[in-house]
Amino acid sequence: MLETEALRKVFKKQVAVDDVNLYLKQGESVGLLGPNGAGKSTFISMIATLTKPTSGIVTWNGKNVIKNPNIIRPTLGMVPQEIALYKELSAYENVKFFGKIYRLHGKKLEQRVQEVIELVGLKDRQKELVNNYSGGMQRRINIAVALLHEPEIIIMDEPTVGIDPQSRNYILEMVKKLNEEKGMTVLYTSHYMEEVERLCDRIYIMDHGKVIATGTKDELTGILSSEETINLELEQQSKVFEEALREQSTVLKVTEWEKGLRLIVPKNSRELAGIFHLAEQYQAAITSVNIQVPSLEDVFLHLTGRRLRD
């Protein structure tokens, strides 16, 4: 349905997107996961024909989008990261205004305005000024606008950034419903691991402009199938203990987390006895230990050497 081949964008001497290959099948929900600055927004901006690539190809149902942007535009819904609304207008007035830009008129326009406002759960407050809405409510109207013309595919660029948990959950459930019940194809960018795990059939992990891994959640975590994660909760961080752990040949990775240290070790390595011995030696008080199978967060750490939101 949608495919990119060696898509690349260079701003002066800065490579923002570096030869990215990606595809979406009809009805899929695909996640583009990566930290801020990974190149996700630039990449989807090229797909949406808002930014011209330096090189590479985007095809929509086999036709070249770079040569003819109008091939994809009528079938595409775009939810930008920034709020794209007129805050001095009501939600109803905003949605109706954009509906006219989509060339909807008369009864069809009014019908679609009411349908999308109801879909995002704001029918009772549609006549209020957007300026009086919370950030989460504004983002929901942003999504309503993108759905007005009944697109075949919707691209969502970090649609839950900076909003309250209730609105975030509402948006995630709505995206899931659009994909599973209405069959809409979704390309969802995020730096929240749990969002793409919850919503997406396949995931592309992006960092420094490159796709560094792709697959289903199980396929990606399978990269570390021979390893396990040990979370150590400490009374307080200890640099000498941390360095001692790094020097152990059986400890593959050590990173700090808010309550202590996270270790990646070979599965069934029986490393715990050595860890407690080092903790006693360096007077590091361990308050709890949790052993778990690797997560997507661990995969990202393994591939990049840092945590997703570092």
From TrEMBL:
Claim: ATP-binding is one of the keywords in the record: yes
Domain ABC transporter: 2-233
Record keywords, A-Z: ATP-binding, Nucleotide-binding
Keyword Nucleotide-binding in annotation: yes
SMART domains given in the database record: AAA (SM00382)
A molecular function GO annotation: ATP hydrolysis activity
Pfam family, one: ABC_tran
Name of the protein described by the UniProt record: ABC transporter ATP-binding protein
Organism, as annotated: Gracilibacillus oryzae
